[in-house]
From TrEMBL:
InterPro entries: 3-OHacyl-CoA_DH_CS, 3-OHacyl-CoA_DH_NAD-bd, 3HC_DH_C, 6-PGluconate_DH-like_C_sf, ClpP/crotonase-like_dom_sf, Enoyl-CoA_hydra/iso, FA_oxidation_alpha_subunit, FadB. It comes from Pseudoteredinibacter isoporae. In the central section; belongs to the 3-hydroxyacyl-CoA dehydrogenase family. The lineage of its organism: Bacteria, Pseudomonadati, Pseudomonadota, Gammaproteobacteria, Cellvibrionales. The keyword Cell wall biogenesis/degradation does not apply. The keyword Glycoprotein does not apply. Pathway: Lipid metabolism; fatty acid beta-oxidation. This is enoyl-CoA hydratase. Transmembrane segments: none annotated. It catalyses: a (3S)-3-hydroxyacyl-CoA + NAD(+) = a 3-oxoacyl-CoA + NADH + H(+). Its EC number is 4.2.1.17.
């Protein structure tokens, strides 16, 4: 054994070869944490001075190669000064990856599974790369608000060309073997069982002089072989395009291009210095902090979900959805797509036809995009069993009620199906507004009942709220969480209250929007301001997309639930439009009107006639500062998020923020409502809220939040 550690071993093979194997103890994957990086440094030094090694084979002892850096260590690393971060990154490159690259013999890396971020950068430091047919490679750092820091922006463009490297790094996409080989990022593809054999054969050829590894290595040490015009065409054109794609809130993709452009005329060490400065600058931004926090928050959410799922005493082998249509069809599609057979029950054939049509449409789209074969589509459709009766309901493990949002109808359907389901089966309701405790009143076994709130459209929205009622037992929650996970969703467990978690927090935001319009604000201006803030759409457009009729109904539920905070002494703009028969996109007229573009898709068009309809219900139009608009909408939303946490509707601050990001598209780079408060500073946020306190309870900070401000506390 040449070197032995807890993450890396280097062993002697035949023919004078050595094998450097990544196999991090106590973890299911390999990752570049402090331990692995330090051991790689030691192993590299040992290999550099070894006199009995002719070639190096780099392998993994796990199903993946290396998934990247240990992101949980970013917080401590990024807390240093920008200069210290740059110095640390550069020092690691010189002491670790450059030493690997400069070894006095050839090296071949066997990529057996995911090689992402630092994993691919490790492979790029080797002379040759052999990739398994089931592996994927990529540099996803821009998705975390940073750029590659172990030489990715330096070595990749020298291997695959500036244009390809820009696309790979700016997009952060994972690449399949064929694409990686075509680009030149890897030198061969092999079946998993043959990977090491092919790697050794390539190493033998390099040692024998049949492969010129010195020339291959030299490409990565020298500046890019482009003239000034070629460089300008590659980098300047790409910067403009990528800036338009990424938007103003995500600087990492454009920064990556600028770093590559500065480094293009430099040798390896000079280029690595530019990379270190680039990543250090981004590491100090709130965007990077929040995107890294989002990644870690997603892991925490997944861990919580798995913990709940393990408590379930029975696996969901078969499910049922009551009520077909668009929502029921979407639930049936998602369940069948992910492998859980489902009965789709409705009282009318028209409903079943609509539900099956929805599922078929979604599957057809996958076939058209090459993501599914027609045979696979047929198999998924066969897993959806349409029914006009309750026959077979005693054979399912979980039932999702998804009928119309009417308390009386839901009571009747829930009580009816409870008589047909098996003992121990779980019954859930996909209600978005009606109290789970209230719905449970119709049941004989309320302990087996909970909410399972999907967001529309089901196939696109990742969040599922699992709502625990006062009498709901742990088995019902656990099985529902397990089913949501099996459907590929991100479940969050919340307690019952009007609007549950997400819609409750969203309601003050929409109420504040109505208040501004009542005072004469232009809803088009509000939309533009909030979209610039980072929302995928402004509140007026959101009303149209959700459906103004749906929004009015939800608003009445919230006013009833929180009369002192969410009631208004005026008729809102949405109520006026609803009474005028303008329901939004569903009938082509709401705050905007909707026309079909050349591709047959709805596009919104401003309709001056809306102001005539609103008439005397709103004050004379006047301008508001963009900052005022943001404050007026965001303060009530954030305060409601605080109340939900304080009241125990959600268990953790992470549950709150992740639910908002996955449920309503809260700007990811801002991290969520509670991250938004933290970033502003709790004391500053409270002071800002106090400036608007005269507008009512929605704008008034809680006593606990004031205490946090006084004590310098934060949510994260």
């Amino acid at each position: 054994m040449i070197f032995s550690g807890k993450a890396i071993t280097v062993s002697q093979l035949d023919n004078g070869f050595a094998e450097l194997n990544f196999n991090l103890e106590g973890d299911s994957v390999n990752k570049f944490n402090a331990l692995t990086t330090d051991e790689l440094r030691q192993a590299a030094e040992t290999l550099r001075s070894a006199d009995n090694v002719k070639g190096l084979l780099v392998t993994s002892g796990k199903d993946v190669f290396i998934v990247g850096a240990d992101i949980s260590e970013f917080g401590a690393n990024f807390s240093e000064s920008e200069e210290a971060i740059a110095e640390g990154v550069l020092a690691t490159n010189k002491a670790v990856f450059n030493v690997i690259e400069d070894l006095p013999f050839p090296s071949v890396c066997c990529i057996n599974g995911f090689a992402l971020g630092g994993g691919l950068e490790m492979a790029l430091a080797c002379d040759y790369r052999v990739m398994s047919t089931v592996a994927k490679v990529g540099l996803p750092e821009t998705k975390l608000g940073i750029i590659p820091g172990f030489g990715g922006t330096v070595r990749l463009p020298r291997l695959i060309g500036a244009d390809n490297a820009i696309e790979w790094i700016a997009s952060g996409k994972e690449q399949k073997p064929e694409a990686a080989l075509k680009a030149g990022a890897v030198d061969a593809i092999a079946e998993p069982a043959k990977l090491k054999e092919v790697g050794l054969a390539m190493l033998e050829q390099a040692v024998a002089g049949k492969l010129n590894y010195s020339a291959k290595r030299q490409e990565k040490l020298e500046p890019l072989q482009l003239n000034d015009i070629e460089m300008m065409m590659s980098f300047e054109t790409s910067k403009a395009f990528v800036a338009g794609q990424a938007g103003p809130h995500y600087p990492a993709p454009v920064t990556a291009i600028k770093v590559m452009q500065k480094a293009a005329k430099l040798d390896r060490d000079g280029a690595l210095a530019e990379e270190a400065k680039g990543i250090a600058k981004l590491a100090k931004t709130e965007v990077a902090k929040n995107l890294v926090g989002l990644f870690l928050g997603d892991q925490e959410l997944a861990k919580t979900g798995k913990t709940w799922a393990k408590k379930s005493t029975a696996k969901v082998e078969k499910a049922a959805v009551l009520g077909a249509g668009i929502m029921g069809g979407g639930i049936a599609y998602q369940s069948a797509l992910k492998g859980t057979p489902i009965v789709m029950k409705d009282i009318a054939q028209e409903g079943l036809d609509l539900g099956l049509s929805e599922a078929s449409k979604l599957l057809s789209t996958r076939v058209q995009r090459g993501r599914m074969t027609p045979e696979k589509m047929a198999g998924v459709l066969n897993m959806i069993d349409p029914s006009l009766s309750y026959d077979g309901m005693d054979k399912v493990d979980i039932i999702v009620e998804a009928v119309v949002e009417n308390p009386k109808v839901k009571h009747a359907v829930l009580a009816e199906v409870e008589e047909k389901m098996a003992e121990g089966a779980v019954l859930t309701s996909n209600t978005s507004t009606i109290s789970i405790n209230y719905l449970a009143e119709a049941l004989k076994r309320p302990e087996d009942f909970c909410g399972m709130h999907f967001f529309n459209p089901v196939h696109k929205m990742p969040l599922v709220e699992v709502i625990r009622g006062e009498k709901t037992n742990d088995e019902a929650v656990a099985r529902t969480v397990a089913y949501a996970l099996a459907m590929g969703k991100k479940p969050v467990v919340v307690n019952d209250c009007p609007g549950f978690l997400v819609n409750r927090i969203l309601s003050p935001y929409m109420g504040a929007f109505m208040g501004l319009v009542k005072e004469g604000a232009d809803f088009v201006q509000i939309d533009k301001v909030m979209e610039k803030f980072g929302w995928p759409m402004g509140p007026a457009y959101l009303c149209d997309v959700v459906g103004i009729d749906t929004g009015v109904h939800a608003g009445s539920v919230m006013r009833e639930g929180f009369p002192t905070r969410m009631s208004a002494d005026y008729k809102s703009a949405s109520e006026v439009l609803f009474e005028a028969g303008r329901y939004g996109q569903k009938n082509d007229a709401g705050y905007y009107k909707y026309e079909l573009d050349r591709k047959g898709r709805q596009k919104k068009v401003f309709d001056e006639g809306v102001w005539d309809i609103l008439g005397d219900h709103v004050d004379a139009r006047k301008d508001f500062e963009a900052e005022t608009i943001v404050d007026r909408l965001m303060i009530p939303m954030c305060l409601e998020a605080v109340r939900c946490l304080e009241e125990g509707i959600a268990d953790t601050a992470n549950d709150v923020d992740m639910s908002l990001i996955y449920g309503v598209g809260f700007p990811p780079f801002r991290g969520g409502a509670l991250h938004y408060i933290d970033d502003m500073g709790v004391a500053e946020f409270v002071a800002k809220a106090d400036q608007y306190a005269e507008l009512g309870e929605m704008y008034q900070a809680t006593d606990r939040l004031r205490e946090m401000a006084k004590n310098g506390e934060t949510f994260f």
